[in-house]
Amino acid sequence: MSVSGGEVAKAPEAPWAVAGACAGAVLFGYHLGVVNTPLDAMSRTLGFAGDAKVAGAVAAPESPRWAGNADKQASAARLWGAAAAARARPWRRRRRLDGRLVGAMVSPRHRRATATAFLLFVQQQFAGINAVVYFSTKVFREAGLQSAVLGSVAVALTNILGTVCVATPLIDKFGRKAMLCSSYAGMAASMAVMAAAAATPALAGTPALAATSFLGTIAYIFAFSCGCGPVPGLLTPELFPSKLRAKGGSIGMLSHWGCNTVVGAAFLPLVAQLGLPAVYAGFAAVAAASAIFAKVAIEETSGAALE
């Protein structure tokens, strides 16, 4: 940010509807073109093949930081309107980054933010979200659900609708910490119920187990979409000043996809060795611990100045 006339010039905030459109475009492509075999087959029928996420990203509006850069006035005008884009011009000055910023990430002033950015996505992934999403069809089928494919479609729609219709309009009203804590609590409770049902021999192969598996998964995904899904990506850049924000986001994404790979690769071998109830109980324990971590260790950034 730059100072003009003694005031800090800020980029205008995009309306929540624009943010929701961005989230919806990404989530649509994520579920339709990347995850779950039946959804991939549907996407091919619709003509998206495996590239729906790319198509959604191309159609989404630019981020405020990019649109605020020099020579991006047209993008800024499309995102905020011509008048607001004109007022944001002082904010467009670029800063030159140097190697000292790497050391700043682990300096006493910023090491807490760096650790938080890393741990947010460790907790998100080890609470089991992508194991549930990737393998929901298999889990539903083994639980006896008549249409595992439709169950997986319901999982995708729940994630999209929860993020766009619940999290997006409420995340600034209730704050990042409250949304994250309640989200993890819901995920822990849902996963614990499914683990208990799967561990009950009397329910094996019954409609009750199929219903518990389906409804528990839907509740888990809904809880995720209301906080644990969107909050880490929003909170991470808010923890850092502008000169470190991109590096902070990179650390978060490194943690996200690294842990995603570990969980995705380890889920089926762990289920084969320990059983689904034990694995789900582990996910529930991580989610419960993450709720406590969010309550006591994460700094609330809602309404706070970014600099």
UniProtKB/TrEMBL annotation:
Record's signal peptide: none
Gene3D superfamilies for this protein: MFS general substrate transporter like domains
Major facilitator superfamily (MFS) profile domain residues: 1-302
Recorded topology in the membrane: Multi-pass membrane protein
Listed transmembrane segments: 16-35, 115-136, 148-171, 183-204, 210-231, 251-272, 278-298
One Pfam family here: Sugar_tr
PROSITE patterns noted in UniProt: MFS
Keyword field: Membrane, Sugar transport, Transmembrane, Transmembrane helix, Transport
Reaction(s) catalysed by this chain's protein: D-fructose(out) = D-fructose(in); D-xylose(out) = D-xylose(in); D-glucosamine(out) = D-glucosamine(in); D-mannose(out) = D-mannose(in)
Subunit record text: Homodimer.
The protein, known as: Hexose transporter 1
